[in-house]
Each structure stands twice: as C-alpha cells, then as structure tokens.
Amino acid sequence: MKRLIALTIAAGALAGAAHAQEIVRGGNPQSPIASVVTVPAGYDMVYVSGMTPPVIDDKATGVARYGDTKTQTLGVLGRIEAALKSQGATMADVVMMRVLLVGDPAKEGKMDFMGMMEGYKTYFGTAAQPNKPARITSQITGLVADGMLVEIEVQAAKKK
After folding, report:
1. What is the pLDDT of residues 66-87, one digit of tens each?
2. In angstroms, how far is the first alpha carbon of the chain from the final one?
3. What domains can you pick out in the chain, each with its CATH number?
C-alpha cells in the first residue's frame, strides 16, 4: 500500500512538472523574431486564419482605402488581437506568424518590409510584451481586394 501511494505521488509530481513547463523561444535576443519556439504538453493551440486590413476610408480606392503597409499591419494585428481575446489568448501567446505582403505601388512594386516591421514592433518584443513568435514573411502578387497589402495568420499557445 505504501508503495502504491508513493507511486501515485511520484506520478502526480511528474504530471505536474510536465504541465509546469513553459514555452521556450530561442534565437538571437536582438532579433525581432524567435528562430525556434517549443510548445510543451499542457497548452491549447489557437489557430487564427489569415486576417486582412480593415477599411480606413470607404470613399477611397486602392491602397488609400486601407492605408500604407504600416497602417494595414496595425489594423491586421488589431484584428488578430481581438480574435485571440475571443479565445482567452493574447498576443503574448503567439508562437508562429505568417506574413504575406503585396508589393506596394509606391515602392516600385516591392514589399514594404520596414513598414510591416514598424507595425509589428508595436506588438512584439516590447517592454510590455517581450514575447516574439517564429515568423515567415513573403511577398505575393495579390490579396482578395485591390489595395490590400497585408495578410497575417498566427498560431498561439495558451496554458490549459
């Protein structure tokens, strides 16, 4: 009986230790992204579909309808933040991000990576929210509406 109790306590301790593990984010601390993120057991995954920017001027056409890349990035990240909140998660829980950028006509058809980064850095790697996700950023030829320059999807992990 004593042996059974000891085994039960040991199993409970191991389960507690496994559940107590934290997400590990690795890579150069100076980088704006994590080069690797490990999510241990004990987390629920939240998948947020690609979000596009909100309209900022419904009378405008093209890029002016949604704003420049930084403005669109901020709008998309705001939408992602709301989606995560609806699932009990926050931007600090984001572990993977995929960013799609359309070439900006004002930049000779090249993606405005720096504009996206300006918006991104307001949400990630800050003093208030230091967590950074793993990320990929790609230039694509177009999105669902003329003038959209940014679409972002994320995966988040929150403790059970």
Report:
1. 999 999 999 999 999 999 999 9
2. 32
3. 22-159 (3.30.1330.40)
